[in-house]
Write a structure and sequence with these properties.
Length: about 260
């Protein structure tokens, strides 16, 4: 019998569940191994060396489980070390980056706010991306470390807490002039309904999850590694040994009872 190779997905914590959800919807026959590194979260305020060490440990563990691809479902980890991972492993490594290109393609002279972790916004990878577009568009960087913590602490349903924090981050901007907000952290995708409630209707809220899922699908198809029959599966583990955390992952994924 042919070995069924899963896809490994990891994040600094729970944010990558939003990427897993998109990939599972697009490729329901695939088998996914999700690892959340909540014991070491948040990555966004740590140094590159610490993040790189953790990512190598996680990927080494995935390789031992015979994964056919690894998705770094974390903008911060991608910024810190995706090239190091690609040089180390002989298998596809798919990273995440803020979907700035998508926002810029909406029209000429766009005014865009990129909301992400502090490390993502200060790394050369994002600076290089920004330089491609900043001559033709107004691009603002807004670090949002607290939004990661709210997800990790299961406070997404605490409406007053969430609204107050989003308003604090958005306060410096004249939103009447803004065209798009780019969610440059996978944790932030879980705030989409709050953003849509708070923002003027003309503002687009953009994330990179669907594009990343399509990229993985295309890559596996070209390599002849797509799983096309049978029922797929998801296995969730976390570096923080907490049953409540696993239940929260299932809730965010939209498991039984959480639709």
């Amino acid at each position: 019998m042919e070995l069924v190779q899963p896809i490994g997905i990891f994040d600094s914590g729970l944010g990558g569940i939003s990427v897993l959800k998109e990939m599972r919807s697009l490729m329901p026959q695939e088998h996914f191994l999700y690892f959340g590194d909540s014991a070491y979260a948040p990555y966004g305020v740590k140094d590159k060396e610490t993040i790189t060490k953790r990512c190598i440990e996680i990927c080494d563990a995935f390789v031992k489980q015979h994964v056919k691809a690894i998705v770094v479902a974390c903008n911060t980890a991608t910024s810190a070390c995706v090239q190091v991972l690609r040089e180390r492993y002989d298998l596809p490594i798919i990273g995440m980056e803020p979907a700035l290109k998508v926002a810029c393609e909406l029209g000429e002279h766009q005014h865009i706010i990129v909301m992400a972790t502090p490390l993502t916004l200060k790394e050369e990878k994002f600076a290089k991306l920004m330089r491609r577009f900043q001559d033709d568009h107004i691009i603002e960087r807004q670090p949002c470390p607290r939004l990661v913590e709210i997800v990790e602490q299961d406070e997404l349903d605490h409406r007053d807490v969430v609204i107050a924090q989003l308003q604090e981050y958005l306060y410096p901007y004249d939103l009447s002039t803004v065209n798009s907000i780019v969610l440059g952290c996978t944790h932030f995708v879980f705030y989409r309904s709050y953003f849509e409630e708070l923002l003027p209707k003309h503002i687009h809220v953009i994330d990179g999850n669907h594009g990343t899922a399509l990229h993985l699908q295309d890559l596996l198809t070209k390599q002849g590694k797509r799983c096309m029959i049978g029922e797929g599966s998801v296995q969730i583990t976390n570096s923080k040994k907490d049953e409540q955390l696993i239940r929260l992952c299932e809730k965010l994924l939209g498991g039984p009872g959480y639709e």
